[in-house]
Input
Amino acid sequence: PLARSLQGQHSGGLVNLLHYGDAISMAQSLESRMPFMDHRLVTFMFSLPWSSKIHGGFSKRIVRDAIGPFMPQEVAWRTNKIGFSTPIVDWMKGPWRTYLTDLTHSADFAQCNLIDPADTRTQVEQVISDPNATAIAGEKAWLALMPYLWERAALKRMA
Output
C-alpha cells in the first residue's frame, strides 16, 4: 500500500498539485517557489521516520538540523512564520502618490460600479496621509482599488 501511495504521488497527486500551483500563481502574476518539491526529495522524505520530520515541537526537523549550525539559532529554531511584504505603503506615499491621487479623483473612478469609489478613495488617502500607515492598511487599500484598475486595463480596452 505504501509503494502504491508513493507511486500515486508521483504520477497523479504531486504532479497535479505542482501543475495547479504553478498555473494559479502565474494567473495572479506571482512567482511561486517550491524548493523541496523535487520528486527524488519527496520520495526520500516519505522514507524518513516521523522523528526526522516533526520532533520536539518543531516541524521540518531535518532541515533545521541541517541548516541550524549555519544560521542564527533564533532564526533556525523559530516557530512562527515570517513572510515578506511588498513595500506597498512606500510606493503609495512615494512614486505612485500623484498617480493614485489623480486616479481616485477622476470622473471615471467615481462612476466605477465594481468598487465603492468613496470608500476606496478614503482608504487610499488614509494610507498616503498617515505617517504610521501599516502594510495591512496599504494592502487593503490596494485590494479595494484593484477591480477598478483591472476594469480600466482589461475590460474597457476590449470594449
Observations:
- The CA atoms of residues 75 and 81 lie 10 Å apart.
